Amino acid sequence: MSDRRRPLFMLLLRDLVEAYQAFESYALPHIKSQGLTPAQFDVIATLGNTEGLTFKELGRRTLIYKTTLTSVVDRLVERGLVRRLPAENDRRSIVARLTDEGHALFDEVFPAHSEHLRRRLEQLSEEEMQELRKSLVKIRQIFD
C-alpha cells in the first residue's frame, strides 16, 4: 500500500517510531562505550546532582519500568556506584544515592553524553526545537 493510501495517523506512528529508532541508534552506542547499559545510565543521570531519591521517585523520573528498576540498582550497588539507605522521613522507603565513585562516573559520562547529543540536536534552530518540544508534549498528553 502506498503512503498516500495509508491513514495519516499510521504515517505519523511510523515517523515517530523511526525517529525514536534513529535517536537510539545514535545514543546507545555512546552510552555502551561508557561501560553502562541504557538503564544504568538513566539511573546514574537521574541520581546525579541529587542527595538521592526514593525508589518511588526514581521510578517516576527514569525511563525504566518499575519492575526492572530494582535489578538495575542492584547491579549498580554491586559495582559500588550506588548505595541504598533508609529514607529519613519514611522507614518503609529506601533511598538510592550515588557513592563517591558514582558521582565521579556521573561527572564524567553525563557531560560527555550531553555533548554527544548536542552535536546532533543543535542542527535544529531554536525555533525548530521549541516547535518540536510542543509537539512532543502534545503527543505525550494524548497518551497519558
Q: What top-tier CATH class fits best?
A: Mainly Alpha
- Radius of gyration using CA atoms only: 18 Å
How many DSSP-defined strands?
Answer: 3
**Terminal-residue CA separation:** 31 Å
Number of domains: 1
Largest beta-sheet details? 3 strands, antiparallel
Task: Count the DSSP helices.
Answer: 6
Short précis:
By secondary structure, the chain is mainly alpha-helical.
Write the SSE topology:
Layout: H1 8-33, H2 38-47, E1 53-54, H3 55-61, H4 66-78, E2 82-86, E3 94-98, H5 100-121, H6 126-143
Antiparallel strand pairs: 1-3, 2-3
Helix pairs in contact: 1-5
Protein model, in words:
The chain has about 140 residues and is mainly alpha-helical. The protein has one domain: Winged helix-like DNA-binding domain superfamily/Winged helix DNA-binding domain (Arc Repressor Mutant, subunit A, Orthogonal Bundle), CATH 1.10.10.10. The protein is about 65% helix and about 10% strand. The chain contains six helices and three strands. The chain has a three-stranded antiparallel beta sheet with strand order 1-3-2. α1 packs across α5. The longest helix has 26 residues.
Quick tags:
3 strands; 67% helix; 144 residues; mainly alpha; 3-stranded antiparallel beta sheet; Arc Repressor Mutant, subunit A; 6 helices; globular; 8% strand
